[in-house]
Design goal:
Its EC number is 3.5.1.18. The protein is an alpha+beta fold. It is built from 9 helices and 21 strands.
Length: 390
Amino acid sequence: MDLVPLAERLLGIRSTADRPDELRRALDFVLDVVGPGFTVERFEAGGKPSALVYAGGRRPHFRVIFNAHLDVVPGADDQFLPRRDGDRLIGRGTQDMKLSALVLASVFRDMAARLPYPIGLQLVTDEEVGGRHGTLHQLEQGVTGSFVVIGEHSALRVVNESKGLITARLHAVGRAAHGAYPWLGDNALLKLMRAVDGVLTAYPVATAEAWRTTVNVARVSSGNQALNQVPADGTAWLDIRFPPQDSDFAGRTCDEIAAHLTALCPPGVTAAVDHAEPPHRADPAGVDVLALQRAARAQGYSGELLRKHGAADSRFFFQRGMDAVIFGVGGDGQHGADEYADLTTVEPYRRALTAFLEGIAEREGIAKRVAEPDGIAEAEGVEPEGIANP
């Protein structure tokens, strides 16, 4: 519970995507919590800062990476004034995921220098807007690891699978005319409405939780600004989430997905895909997944496996053959007005992470580290690990 006062200060930092100074302030705050004695690599892409922290002077292949994002979605002013209500800490970013980030930072601080294998702390500030300038950018700069723990909320359950993410546009082309003479024109918005109906017929709007593809029609617009004019163009933006089992999207290229969506539309409407990112999956029988489950159960939690409908930075690790899971504190109200973290889960979470790290050395028989001349500590008698194959 010593982290709660720190969390309240961090939660007061309005680290939204449109406030670059606050993103840097949040990043520096957590680096200060970690303290001196570690190597800090700083990165920046797209105006979004991030950092990678580790012991020693040369970046290794990490046995474990702790990944945390410090950005939050926008909220009302009072949401950045955190408050306690019994065992709840209420405010923007409590559950998603500043409190978990502080736990990860504190466990790293206490464990990294004494573990007989290298671990890294990855702090990013753009997860809520796609993660491409934080986690993805660091991976593109050569950061690797065998197993990744992402501190998104999970109430000490282990999220080993999450849906893929596609952002697509349906674009309709018509012919302009005076609104009083619609037979002289070709209304692009009417075409667009039929196109959206075609897509939603194939992928109906979910009325209850289901592990299947969902399509959210996020925005519809037209260049037409006059009420008395037949629109000559229209665009609908789609947010598509899909599980690995959906062969319409899984393993397909952007062009192939665009062709599939276009086939669901009437003539005059075509689809374009801006991003297509695969689902994420970590082997449920993997030794690290099982060990993390055991660590959660030892703290009185189920440690059960979960599927996550939303995409997370775990997808970037999966694309590069690295096993990643989501494992964090409890709470509710993510992105809502009453978002809160369950403070009763904080200490069990910290103990579970500590036990998980200690168990790796015991399980793999890594006895000690020998200091090398360049200041890097290597595990004696242990060959460097390759990247885990999910």
